[in-house]
Specification:
Number of helices: 15
Structural class: alpha/beta
Number of domains: 3
Strand order of the largest sheet: 8-7-9-6-10-11-12
CATH architecture of the largest domain: 3-Layer(aba) Sandwich
Distance between the termini: 62 Å
Shape: globular
CATH topology of the largest domain: UDP-N-acetylmuramoyl-L-alanine:D-glutamate ligase
Helix content: 25-40%
Strand content: 15-25%
Largest sheet: 7 strands, mixed
CATH superfamily of the largest domain: Mur-like, catalytic domain
Number of strands: 22
């Protein structure tokens, strides 16, 4: 592959996106198209995302084919695309300049006076969406790039003015090292992506390196309740601001933390001893309260008033595929969450368990063979609160089956620990099992960042079961 070039050296040329259906890629394609470039793309399979791009006028080819890149001035690809992808192979043969997704994001962000990056092993999309809501409700005009669909944006990106850029910063393959923000929010540092990182220490080192990319005068906002995130303070020279619900030594803390209506939290932010306007959240869970406090810290550093921040946080109702109530069938409530590692399971399953209900069925679609193997022991303790656990086949994503890990191994290990776990291979088998066992008042929660959300759609499309 040729050395990366700058997007803006290719004005008047077609920019082709390999893997355009991905959450970040489709957002970048929209931003690039909004800058006046001609855009095309390809993806291995059709999806709601590719269908929407086509409706918006973006030519999208389903299936990767060498001819798709012919005539392009620049090719954008993701870190998940293998080097032997036929489009990348043809790109090299034709000497077409190519750039990785993260580098394109970095180039776009550097064109703004202020750039905000939200990073962490989990919680990035919801927290970035929270902060986007606060900025917009405060009358600012940010350009926004997130990994999920936010109704306020009408999608996952927003083209704003040239002063302020807000993005979700992904740690996968250290891709956030292309960013040079003025403000970085670090939510947590935990084990994940161990197909790339050697161990947790490698992950910590990479987060520390990311913070060295802050522009001169930049600020890092660190979660004081996460030991590894807080430890970054001692490894960087930039100004650090901390926040936490449990650490009373943090710069931003909370008074009167209360649970309202089973799962929703309210609290009074405290800024270095001074109380701000109380916050009443409309998204569930203590983790969202913690992340909202991080948003308060960022928004205050941007000069926003406590009153504006509290109002906007109260109006934030979440982002799609994050503990989303998708519908009801047979008197059973169906929820979906994008969570795909044990820490995320431990955050979201208790939310469903806290709802008034009969039984809680949790359907897990493990994501990638490497993650399932590396975090296997973590998954075994991640289903607390579920009455029944169903596990589908592993979603391979970018990987090939190594032949040494299978969902049945996870099910058998859970069963040995006394968990009521069942292997349901595919969506059809999972739906049959659920309909045969659920009763009105039960809850079904599907978990995964593959295509498990389509199971919810399938069940809802089939509707209520015929009465005997």
């Amino acid at each position: 592959m040729q050395q990366s070039t700058n997007l803006f050296d290719h004005e008047g040329q077609r920019i082709h996106f390999v893997g355009i259906g991905g959450s970040s890629m489709r957002g970048l394609a929209r931003l690039v198209r909004g800058r006046g470039f001609s855009v095309s793309g390809s993806d291995r399979s059709a999806s709601h995302a590719t269908d929407r791009l086509i409706r918006e006028g973006v030519p999208v080819t389903i299936g990767h084919d060498a001819k798709n890149v012919e005539g392009a001035g620049l090719v954008v690809y993701t870190a998940a695309i293998p080097a032997d992808n036929p489009e990348l192979v043809r790109c090299r043969q034709l000497n077409i300049p190519a750039i990785e997704r993260a580098e394109l994001l970095g180039q776009l962000s550097r064109g703004y006076d202020r750039s905000i990056a939200v990073c962490g092993t989990h919680g990035k999309t919801t927290t970035t969406s929270m902060l986007a809501t606060v900025l917009l409700e405060a009358g600012l005009d940010p350009t926004v790039h997130i990994g999920g669909e936010l109704d306020l944006l009408g999608g996952n990106v927003r083209e704003g003015g040239r002063e302020l850029f807000l993005t979700e910063a992904c740690e996968y393959k250290a891709s956030f090292l292309t960013l040079y923000p003025t403000l970085a929010l670090v939510l947590n540092v935990a084990e994940d992506h161990l197909d790339f990182y050697r161990d947790i220490h490698h992950i910590e080192d990479t987060f520390a390196e990311f913070l060295t990319h802050l522009r001169e005068g930049g600020v890092a906002v660190l979660c004081a309740d996460n030991e590894r995130a807080l430890a970054l303070r001692d490894r960087v020279s930039c100004r650090c601001v901390t926040y936490g619900l449990d650490n009373d030594q943090a710069d931003y803390t909370a008074h009167d933390l209360q649970v309202v209506g089973d799962v929703y939290y309210s609290f009074t932010p405290v800024e270095q001893g001074r109380e701000l306007e109380p916050v009443h959240l409309s998204v569930p869970g203590r983790l969202n309260a913690l992340n909202a406090l991080g948003v308060v810290a960022c928004a205050r550093l941007l000069g926003l008033s406590g009153k504006r921040i509290a109002q906007a946080l109260g109006e934030f109702h979440g982002v799609h595929r994050r503990f989303e109530h998708t519908g009801d069938v047979d008197g059973v409530q169906l929820y979906h969450d994008y969570g795909h590692n044990p820490e995320e399971y431990r955050s979201v399953i208790p939310l469903a368990a806290a709802l008034p209900k009969g039984r809680l069925f949790v359907v897990s679609q493990p994501h990638t063979y490497s993650r399932t193997k590396a975090l296997f022991s973590g998954y075994l303790s991640a289903f607390t609160g579920a009455d029944e656990v169903l596990v589908t086949d592993i979603f391979a994503a970018r990987e090939k089956d190594p032949g040494d890990i299978h969902s049945t191994q996870l099910v058998e290990a859970l069963q040995r620990l006394g968990v009521n776990a069942t292997y349901t291979k595919d969506f059809e088998g999972t739906e049959r099992y659920l309909r045969a066992h659920w009763r009105p008042g039960d809850i079904v929660l599907t978990l995964g960042c593959g295509n498990i959300n389509l199971l919810n759609e399938q069940i809802e499309q089939h509707g209520d079961s015929p009465r005997a």
